[in-house]
Amino acid sequence: MDYTARYGLEFNPFLKNSKEVLIETQEYKEVQFRLKYLLSTKGFGLLTGSAGKGKTTALRSFASSLNPSLYKVVYSSLSTLTVMDFYRNLAAELGAVPAYRKTENFKLIQDEINRLAIEKRQTPVIIMDEANYIGTAILNDLKILFNFEMDSRDRAVILLAGLPQLNNTLRLGIHEPLRQRIVMNYNLDGLSKEEGRSYIHEKLKGAGCSQKVFEDNAIEAVLNAANGTPRMINKLCNASLLVGNSSNLNIITADAVMQAISDCELVHYKINN
Fold first, then answer.
1. In this structure, are residues 26 and 195 in contact, taking their beta carbons and an 8 Å threshold?
2. CA pair distance 27, 228, nearest whole angstrom
3. Pairing assessment for the beta strands 157-162 and 43-49 based on DSSP bridges
4. Disulfide engineering: 131 pairs with which of 79, 85, 96, 162, CB 3.0-4.6 Å?
5. 112 is in which domain, residue-wise?
6. Same domain, 108 and 208
7. Does the residue 169 lie in any domain?
């Protein structure tokens, strides 16, 4: 029997590539509120959180909610770009033909931001995901790159998102001028137990489920192992559905979850050894 049919699911809501069932937790709402504040003030923002806490989900949701006639969104993941690629990519995304020298790309980027802000009345929203990979050179450049009209007016929103150590990097003396320009700084702590339970129930409901899938102590086992991390909740719930189905369980037990946790740890061990 197919596991989705067994558990009354139209699709598996815990898989990354399935239909998105967005759960608006209290923390998610707080992040959206902070991002909207940054949108109104412009300037630099910082969003941090450990892996799997929901940064990228929150950023994508925020970006997709913006009116494209009012905002020009540029999204880049810094783990995959060299310094020169970063500037060339940013220039191209803003609408310019990228140059091969950094100084030329600097001017192109500034000209495009001015053109968007003044002529088209669009606010550039530049999102730099995985910004903990940023080197000192780019961080030093950012405050110069986005320093318009002698600091009197910010024309763009620049959002740095990454792991919590990004805060430590920005506390270094060399980055003090940039840190002083950060107008929004928020760290995602993860879900409480209560929010975790709601998260699982809402995910199941979003996939058309109206039956009981997990025993209460099974959900408790998932939440204890996941430690408030949405990505880990998804991973363990998905693994538990598979274990439960292969064991012919119509309701997933804590034992099935413990087996799923063990399976996930084994896969992680094999990948890292």
1. yes
2. 11
3. parallel
4. 162
5. 26-188
6. no
7. yes
Q: How many residues in the chain?
A: 273
For the record, the structure tokens of 88 come out as: 């060339």
* Predicted TM-score (pTM) of this structure: 0.85
Domains held by the chain: number = 2
Domain identity same for 36 and 105: yes
Residue 69: both structure tokens together: 């006639």
**Nearest-angstrom CA–CA distance, 70 and 36:** 14
And the tokens for 102?
């950094």
Q: Do 75 and 136 fall within a single domain?
A: yes
> For position 269, what pLDDT does the model report?
38
- Whether 64 is covered by a domain: the verdict is yes
pLDDT for 228-244, tens place per residue? 999 999 999 999 999 99
